[in-house]
């Protein structure tokens, strides 16, 4: 079974509606994967306050709202699993996107400490360069593709299914003693 609910995760009312619809349809939430994000590559001194707010509201506040709403339900059931998708940008520094993603890493650690006693695990995945709709502009130019992949020891970008494999691992009992961690999936980019 599946359920589609269009949601702006930067709006609490939308998130509350989403969670209630899922609860009504399925009776509970076992796993939350926060994966919504927007990207802005504008340098910091050229970044407008509105652009800053859009990134922070979606890429950090949205994760907070989803974790908060779903976390309450998981605490009631005394079990759950939260997986936050961050980015290697969280570890490299940069403008609003990197700052939001670094916030997700620390949100993950804080929630793992706070929710662990309720049998709720909270982890993150930090993909490196990967082909998605959000990043396809980086891959359309052969020169840019070559420059990016030259910095990756494995010599290529990640495929989406390679990130999904890590999410499946974190969602499974095979990772039952892992919480508060960020697994970097970057082909060695940060090595």
Keywords for this structure?
Rossmann fold, 4 strands, 6 helices, alpha/beta, globular, four-stranded parallel β-sheet, 191 residues, 47% helix
Description:
The relative contact order is 0.14. This protein is of the alpha/beta class and 191 residues long. The chain has helices at residues 12-26, 49-77, 96-115, 136-139, 142-150, 160-171; strands at 31-34, 80-85, 120-127, 182-185. The protein starts with 11 loop residues before the first helix and ends in a 6-residue tail after the last strand.
Percentage of residues in helical conformation: 40-55%
Shape, per Cα inertia axes:
globular
Q: What is the number of helices?
A: 6
Order of helices and strands: HEHEHEHHHE
Strand content is 5-15%
CATH topology: Rossmann fold
Amino- and carboxy-terminal Cα gap: 40 Å
CA radius of gyration is 17 Å
Instruction: Give, in spatial order, the strands making up the sheet with the most strands.
Output: 1-2-3-4
Which runs of at least 5 residues are low in confidence (pLDDT < 50)? none
Q: Label the CATH architecture.
A: 3-Layer(aba) Sandwich
Structural class designation:
alpha/beta
Number of E strands: 4
- What's the CATH C level? Alpha Beta
Pfam families: adh_short_C2 (PF13561)
Protein name: SDR family oxidoreductase
GO molecular function, one term: oxidoreductase activity, acting on the CH-OH group of donors, NAD or NADP as acceptor
Organism: marine sediment metagenome
